[in-house]
Amino acid sequence: MKLAIYPGSFDPVTFGHIEIISRAAKMFDKLIVLVSVNPLKPNSFTREERLEMLSETVQVEGFDNVEVDSYDGLLIDYFKQRDADVIVRGLRAVSDFEYEFQMAQANRKLCPKAETVFLASKSEYTYFSSSVVKQIGMFGGDIKDFVPEYILGRIANRLKK
Q1: 92 is catalytic
Q2: Each residue of 131-141: pLDDT tens digit?
Q3: Is 130 a catalytic residue?
């Protein structure tokens, strides 16, 4: 069984994330969507809220082989604990590649078994990130084209504050 991990902050989950989850879920027997906790990165949503939104997404979208989890240590330690095979990362633009390539190399240095698979986002998702969605939402802009309707209200209300 091929087990893949798709880590990220998912602050908040966007259509871009969902598209990567959908594609990765078809490629691997099991996919863990991992809410990573980075103490150096401020979040708009708590770990619990991000887990709730992702769990609801997995249920609503019907991703039967997807599990949602969180971890606040090194990704590679979680990778080893779960005896995973692959790390999945989404790429929006060439600018993402340099950072992601460095992380993939560091992970392989720490665990030679760790392979990273890069999935290029669909063109309609290349121009926005969770940060852009948050900025639009903070100023009361319409974010319905970026996040699913079933979590839109929670996201919009939090960002307006």
Answers
A1: yes
A2: 889 999 999 89
A3: yes
Query: CB burial class (10 A; 0-12, 13-18, 19+) of residue 41?
Result: exposed
pTM, two decimal places: 0.94
Confirm whether 44 is a catalytic residue: no
Where does 3-123 sit in CATH, by number?
Answer: 3.40.50.620
Which of 41, 95, 123, 161 is flagged as catalytic? Answer: 41
- Active-site residue, from 92, 108, 154, 158: 92
- Tokens 């087990």 correspond to 3
Specify the higher pLDDT residue, 1 or 58: 58
Biggest distance spanned by C-alpha atoms of the chain: 46
Catalytic residue among 9, 17, 50, 121: 17
